[in-house]
Design brief:
- This protein has 285 residues and is α+β, with helices and mostly antiparallel strands.
- The chain is built from nine helices and nine strands.
- It has a five-stranded antiparallel sheet.
- Strand 1 and strand 2 form a beta hairpin.
- Helix 2 runs antiparallel to helix 4 and helix 7 packs antiparallel against helix 8.
- The chain is elongated, with a radius of gyration of 27 Å.
- The termini are far apart.
């Protein structure tokens, strides 16, 4: 009768090498080499992407893929150096390893799984402007365990990759260099809305940061509220890194023309609207 495959039989045959100085040195060398290689590859690709410009996000999306490949190879080299497994033994080892530590390190492995999902499904990429949970900023690095984003206040926030399984993720540009920006301005009720929209449109389309084409349209909108009117300009900034310069330029130029035209800000705007606009509301006269 043919032998039945058994994890116990397979793992009992594992050949574990004697831990000596040479083996320890080899393992340390492999780990250090993997770390240095990922750092060098990241540095080189980031520098190349900065020179290419429009295809920056396309180049940087290779970084997490290369990191994953390097770490997998390093882990394999370390594993085979210690136990010299055959294919059935490799399967048995990973099964037992996952079962043994899965409960105690489930969050850690959820983060690793999240990193793999991010790499292949691309809910966001390096260089994207994203909102993850309560954090907003530019994705600077996607590691195996965590994603680092740089916030508008220049803080670096590390977010566990497992967060994508429990928190909504919003990407403002989805791998594109251009990004849609909303710019809200608030004026008093009874304002000449046609004139105000014309001024806002002029400030928007003449901005040095905007890109306009069939793929990147723009629009200006008006909405009436009980104590104020909201004017909203929607346009694509040519490079997402100029998001706040774009907002500031359009806002500053529009309000300069509003003042000349006698258009004033309202006496009251709900705090939620001020936060949503990303710009301070002009004080009324």
């Amino acid at each position: 009768m043919a032998d039945t495959f058994s994890l116990g039989n397979v793992t009992a045959e594992l050949s574990i090498r004697t831990i000596d100085t040479n083996l320890v040195v080899y393992i340390v060398f492999v780990l250090i080499a993997a770390y240095v290689l990922t750092r060098v590859l990241s540095f080189l690709l980031i520098n190349v992407s900065e020179r290419i410009g429009w295809y920056r996000t396309t180049i940087t999306m290779l970084i997490p893929l290369l990191k994953l490949a390097v770490y997998v190879i390093a882990f394999y080299l370390v594993l085979t150096a210690v136990i010299e497994p055959s294919l059935p033994q490799m399967i048995a080892f990973f099964t037992l390893f996952a079962a043994g530590v899965g409960f105690g390190l489930k969050d850690f492995f959820a983060d690793i799984l999240g990193g793999i999902v991010i790499i292949f499904e691309k809910p966001y990429q390096i260089g994207d402007k994203v909102t993850i949970g309560n954090h907003y900023g530019e994705v600077k690095d996607i590691g195996i365990r965590a994603t680092r984003i740089q916030t508008p206040s220049d803080e670096m926030v590390s977010i566990p990759n497992g967060t994508i399984f429990s928190q909504p993720v919003q990407s403002g540009n989805a791998g594109d260099l251009a990004m849609m920006i909303d710019i809200d301005l608030f004026v008093r009720p009874g304002t000449d809305i046609d004139r105000a929209l014309k001024i806002l449109k002029e400030a928007l389309v003449t901005s040095k940061y905007i890109i306009i084409s069939d793929r990147y349209p723009f629009t200006v909108l008006a909405e009436d509220f009980p104590f104020y009117m909201r004017l909203r300009a929607k346009g694509y900034v040519s490079d997402l890194r100029h998001e706040f310069e774009f907002k500031s330029e359009v806002t500053r130029r529009a309000w300069a023309e509003f003042m000349k035209a006698g258009i004033r800000s309202p006496g009251f705007v709900p705090p939620s609207e001020e936060v949503a606009s990303g710009e301070p509301v002009e004080s009324g006269e």
